[in-house]
Design a protein that fits this description.
Blueprint: E1 3-11, E2 14-22, E3 26-30, H1 37-45, E4 52-57, E5 60-61, E6 72-75, H2 87-96, H3 102-115, H4 131-143, E7 149-153, H5 161-178, E8 181-185, H6 189-195, E9 199-203, E10 206-209
Parallel strand pairs: 3-8, 3-9, 6-7, 7-8
Antiparallel strand pairs: 1-2, 1-4, 4-5, 9-10
The chain binds adenosine-5'-triphosphate.
Adenosine-5'-triphosphate binds next to helix 1.
Length: 210
């Protein structure tokens, strides 16, 4: 799987000129706060339009491909779980908005919950979950739509060391089992090192291989 980006983006007074070819199963993206890492992800998703240039995934130019057809599982920095839905409702959300029938949604929710060991949480409210459990639900919600590309924005923030280790192992398993490409934003070098040798830095509006 190969994601090639070559675009510029202006937001306010900032300009990014971002070029790279991501072809490893896992790539870490690092860089100082405010450098533009989340902006990069939003552009790849199509949530922010690029000003000039291209984003090409496996040979397909995404210029006219809407977000929902890009097969991306996006895990935003704040997880953005829906507090008024149960765990099952959160997991199934991406399928329900795509008008998948209820039986299929229920089967897929059970399948992904078993895979992530959260089946005992399916009827819980989001407010009644621990940080690590929320993390797993957010990963499940990203995975259930059968993505080809995962974008995880600082997914392990605020977790204790043991839970962080468990999540790192889970991420490695997901990428290997499901043959998905993952880009992961992190501020922690050891997190990047645990997952990949390929680390890019966003700095001064550019993307550089570290
Ligand atoms: N909609 C917007 N309009 C104007 N400026 C924006 C907008 N969104 C983000 N920015 C600015 O763009 C810069 C990059 O933001 P971004 O969220 O991509 O940084 P980041 O590298 O992900 O930071 P962090 O590590 O703190 O999460 C910041 O200075 C931010 O204030």
């Amino acid at each position: 799987m190969t994601l090639t980006i070559d675009f510029s983006k202006v937001l306010g007074v900032q300009k990014w000129t971002l070029s790279a070819t991501f072809d490893q199963p896992i790539t870490a993206i690092m860089g100082p706060s405010g450098a533009g890492k989340t902006t990069l992800f939003k552009c790849i998703c199509g949530l922010l339009p690029v000003d000039n240039g291209t984003i090409v995934f496996n040979g397909v130019n995404w210029e006219n491909v809407p977000t929902e057809q890009r097969r991306i599982g996006y895990l935003p920095q704040d997880l953005a779980l829906f507090p008024n839905l149960t765990v099952a409702g959160n997991l199934g959300f991406g399928l329900s908005v795509s008008h998948v029938d209820r039986l299929t949604i229920s089967q897929k929710v059970t399948e992904i919950a078993n895979y992530l060991n959260i089946e005992h949480l399916l009827n819980r409210q989001i407010s009644a979950l621990s940080g690590g459990e929320k993390q797993r639900v957010a990963m499940g919600r990203a995975l259930i739509v059968n993505p080809a590309l995962l974008l995880f924005d600082e997914p392990f923030n605020g977790l204790d060391e043991a839970t962080r280790q468990a999540c790192l192992e889970l991420v490695n398993k997901i990428v290997a089992d499901k043959n998905i490409q993952l880009l992961l934003i992190t501020h922690h070098q050891q997190e990047a090192d645990a997952l990949t040798k390929t680390v890019y830095i966003v700095e001064n509006g550019m993307l550089k291989l570290s």
